[in-house]
Amino acid sequence: MTPITEVEGRRVALSNLEKVLYPATGFTKGEVLHYYATVAEVFLPHLRDRPVSFLRYPDGPDGQIFFTKNVPPGTPDWVTTAEVPRSDGPARMVLVQDLPSLMWAANQVAEFHTHQWVAQAPGVADRLVLDLDPGSPATVVECCEVALWLRDRLAEDGIDAYAKTSGSKGLHLLAAVSGSSSEEVSEYAKQLALEAEEAMPRLALHRMTRSLRPGKVFVDWSQNAARKTTAAPYTLRARPEPWVSAPVTWAEVEECRSPGRLAFGAPDIPPRVQDYGDLLAPLLTESQSLPGA
């Protein structure tokens, strides 16, 4: 029988708590739920009002992995949803607005992916994201070099950037923006990627072409498109171990000399939040215009 837990007055079904989801470390589903409950204070503000896509891995990262974008069958009626536009017609997606809906969603065992806009203004960007993806033998160390160049380039345009690990191999740069469409932000991000490649031709790449990527960092600007989503800050990833897409300081980026220096698992995050707070909190309050906007 599935246990029912009351969370802030909502009845939430939490199932298979002893199930091992990350065999490499023995990390269980119960520990996944505990992680999200522990970091909810910093996680929820980055989810609130944003339609969420779930990359589900109910049997762990070695099992079936699939995206769920529409509201899943059986979603409680108290979970907030929103209609969002798509090329093939409007769809309804989940909004994770509070702790009960977070715990319900976490029980689905999924990565949390969000758009760069909120449900009240679809296609009007309030985030710029650059996904730095290293091609072997390049690692996050090379990503950090590119990130520092991009940080300084964005600063020239009066835009403050913040960094987080992807929770996999790379690094994400984020900035708060306003007054521009997703298409305009995509064009600006593409220009930044082109400039990075021109400035660091042996290191940075703006095209996804696989044959060009070994030893280089692909600056993926395309995730700014209105239809695209990016792994949310603090989400667990479907990796062999419970890695997290973790906010990092610029000092940590500057000092990164080995890949392990910027690899954070679920147990690492609560102490980091205690020490640093939410390193991405400025994204929730800043409003920066693109050049010429």
TrEMBL record:
List each copy of the DNA ligase D polymerase domain by range: 28-279
Keyword Ligase assigned to the entry: answer is: yes
GO MF annotation, one: DNA ligase (ATP) activity
Q: What top-tier enzyme class does this entry carry?
A: ligase
Q: Does the keyword Ligase apply?
A: yes
Its keywords, alphabetically, are: Ligase
Protein EC? 6.5.1.1
Write down what this protein is called.
Answer: Non-homologous end-joining DNA ligase
The organism of origin for this protein:
Streptomyces fuscus
* Gene transcribed to yield this protein: ligD
